[in-house]
Batch of 2 targets.
Target 1
Amino acid sequence: MPDAPGKPREPHAIDRDHLVRYLDEYLAAHDGKDYGPNGLQVQGRGQIRKVVTGVSACLELFHKARERDADAIIVHHGIFWDWQSPRLTGMHYDRVAELIYHGVNLLAYHLPLDRHDKVGNNAVAARALGLDDLQPFGDAYGLPVGFHGRFPEPISPDELITRARNFYGREPLAFPAGPDPVETLGIISGGAQKELTTAIDLGLDAYITGEVSEWVMNTARESKIHYLACGHYHTEKCGIQAVGDLIAERFGLEVEFIDVPNPV
């Protein structure tokens, strides 16, 4: 029987463990190593109706998710990392306590969300920037993490910078030292400046990542490759947004991306 006119529809719900299993499998969350655990990091309530997605776990994101009555938060950067103390004190305690007290689940997918060929940060960006013939490249714990490809019609360096600016939503720090026109491009989101050497070894015309180190400028100039640093945060927004779109469509859940801007 259809809903009466004006009567709000009951939101769809999914069992938490069902959602976790689906995302773990779809994103191949347990393939290879990572810098921290992927999947469910903090357990909350068992039924999920509203999901908030974000790039990085932090109290600001958690507070905004609670204001929106979220049952789960899905992020790219979680709250547990190998280099951190496991003690629940200070900032670490505050984050975990906020989630547990309000019954909110936290799921995190780091390298799996960089390397995925459909909803991953690099595959999404490569397609949006106009690349064809995508091939995985770059290495993180023995698995490729980025993609490189070819423009169907070569573009100018200025056009590459314009496309990157429009897609990522910030002005790239660019060292336009490569050929004109640009035929090939490699992309690894986040802090992958060291993989510039891999792009050079492959003979790519251009390379995009999130961050830049002091040595990069001269390396790019002397190797005649275009280098664009488009922001760690900004290069990793598109994957988590694509995951949100995926679960909204598949499960009928209410999903909202919350931007907590970061200039890095």
Target 2
Amino acid sequence: MTVRRLWPRLALLALLVAGVVLLRLTVFAAAAIPVRVAVAQKGLVEETVTNSRAGTVKARRRAKLAPETGGRVVSLPHRRGSRVRQGELLLQVQDSVQRAQLSLAEDDRKVALAQRDQACLAADHAEREGVRTRGLAAQGIVSTDQIDGVDSQARTAEAACRAARATAERAESAVRLARAQLRQTTLLAPFDGIVADTFIEEGEWTSPSPPALPIPPVLDLIDTRSIYVSAPMDEVDSARIRKGQPARVTVDSRPGQHFPAHVVEVAPYVLDRLEQNRTVEIELELDDPAVAASLLPGTSADAEVILSAKDGVLRVPTSALLEGGKVLVLDRGRLVEESLRLGLRNWDFTEVRGGLEPGARVVVSLDRPEVKAGAKAREQESGQS
């Protein structure tokens, strides 16, 4: 075949190849993957530890109360949610019997006091009579038998006086007992707090407790000034947690809010509930007492203890990290894998000590298999799914 006849065929083949390459670069070219990115920049990074299981909001002073005596409830002035002061009446049991017993005891005391006064006056008179008789005996006017009789009467009167005094003291004790029994018909607030719940109504009966068997409470009182958070921490972290360390608390009832707190107690032992679940209980108090008072005991809570912190250091979102301390960087339309030297970290941010420049755009949407090194990519626009 001559060269002249070969040239048209070569030209046609070149056109076909050029067309295929053009189609691959245009029509059949792989679309750029949309990815979410975060800019590496300087800021605060904290090293933290969090609870291994859900913690709980608790109250150090919480009393489940019941009256000391049984009877029909005639007054229940405070209901759920009421704030009360120490000493305020919470519940009143019908007290007519106790008041009658107190009145009777006070009457008995009056009688006993009168009898004491009478007996002791008689004793004083007998004593004076004995002195006068002994004076006459010294003059030889009365006999020895008369002196013995007077002395015996004086001793008898003195004994009667002592007995009357004892009876009066017993009557006084009976009055104190009756007053104490009357006080048992009232239930007073032992401290300032809020009524969490009541379990009885006016007109219902409450029963006294038999020995070693407490009766069910009729009222639940919480001191809102004693609110704290108890959280179980993994035993591995126990040696790094100390009293006074700053912390943050979150509660399920207030999503998205973080409350500053501090560690006030670390348990001196490891709690072994299950063989694979060993924890140390810590207690935290919120820095703002008003916020603490607004939390409901029993609410689920999470604690994040801040072990150390650095400000003004280069950081990336922790969600951008790949295995081995690597990240994907969006650079001129391509995803490039970079290895980093890391420092402090928490759930939100990780310190970058080397391997990345400020301003780099690191990929945080790593949940798709096509997001990998070498892939064409573009920054996902805000609001794009």
